[in-house]
Design a protein that fits this description.
Layout: H1 2-13, H2 15-22, H3 37-46, H4 64-68, E1 79-80, E2 88-89, H5 98-103
Antiparallel strand pairs: 1-2
Length: about 100
């Protein structure tokens, strides 16, 4: 209920910005675990031609613009993932949080 309510508030407050996003083509990266989807996401995100949610959007995935108004977190240094695969991440790193949308 809270997630849906925050999403509705996000839609109302940022409708002008969201309208532009709805008309663009989207790319969904899918694959089995450990199949390279994270490195592909990072590569595409670094081109600055694609957007993604980041760890900094947590825990308000459905209302990132609203949360940005209150978010005062600092960016932390890059840290290697627990997988020990040399992929570094921090709060600015993109991540696939699509499950939150599907569950809501």
């Amino acid at each position: 209920m809270i997630k849906k309510s925050l999403f509705k508030i996000e839609e109302m407050l940022f409708a002008n910005q969201l309208a532009d996003v709805k008309n663009h083509q989207h790319i969904f990266i899918t694959g089995l675990p450990r199949s390279g989807t994270t490195i592909l996401l990072e590569f595409l995100y670094k081109t600055n031609k694609f957007a993604s949610l980041t760890y900094n959007d947590m825990p308000f995935i459905l209302s990132p613009n609203l949360f940005l108004k209150f978010n005062r977190r600092q960016n932390f240094q890059l840290k290697e993932r627990m997988h020990k695969d040399n992929i570094q991440f921090n709060l600015q790193s993109p991540e696939a949080f699509d499950d939150v949308f599907f569950q809501t």
